[in-house]
From TrEMBL:
Organism of origin: Peteryoungia desertarenae
Family: Belongs to the 5-formyltetrahydrofolate cyclo-ligase family.
Signal peptide: none
InterPro entries the UniProt entry points to: FTHF_cligase, FTHF_cligase-like_sf, NagB/RpiA_transferase-like
Protein's name according to its UniProt entry: 5-formyltetrahydrofolate cyclo-ligase
The keyword Metal-binding is annotated on this UniProt entry: yes
EC number: 6.3.3.2
Keywords, alphabetical: ATP-binding, Ligase, Magnesium, Metal-binding, Nucleotide-binding
Entry superkingdom: Bacteria
Amino acid sequence: MERNSIKSELRKTKLALRDNIDPELRLEYSLRIADHAFEGLAVEPGAVFSGFFPIRSEADIRPLMAGLKAAGARICLPVVIDRETIVFRELVVGAALVDTGFGTRGPGPEAEVLDPDVLLVPLSVFDGRGNRIGYGAGHYDRAIARLRQKGRSPRLIGIAFDCQEVAEVPLEPHDVPLDAIITESGYRRFVD
């Protein structure tokens, strides 16, 4: 089986497992993820964290983003500009939210575009070495590449549930491993 077919099958299987988590349990797991994040993250005042509003059955990291903001971080959200590009717009209290692609909402075009220091990355599958499978559009891969071309090296922290882990993710040349993952079980750093 070729790599793309394997990734597609892993994505389908793990997203089905995530979808089957009871909504009340998913909320509890999301709160645990926020607690574990603060055990592993150092928040420098003014540091820029990219978060996300949950779609479908993703972990809800809004409590985590609120805690980061309270600790002095600036928060931004990904916004789909076209089929190839996402940018990260600052989320500020009181600003209107607009449709930003993939069924989610976020800051409008008047919001400041930021380059994140830390990306909290949604995903469909991950392994114990920090490799991930996204949703198949490659938005985060391209965004990370653009940030690196600008001389930036953001920390990449995956957000997922334990049920999304597999023994091994098949790699492609453009894949960039995560620095850490946060699940309901804890904050796990990956080392080479």
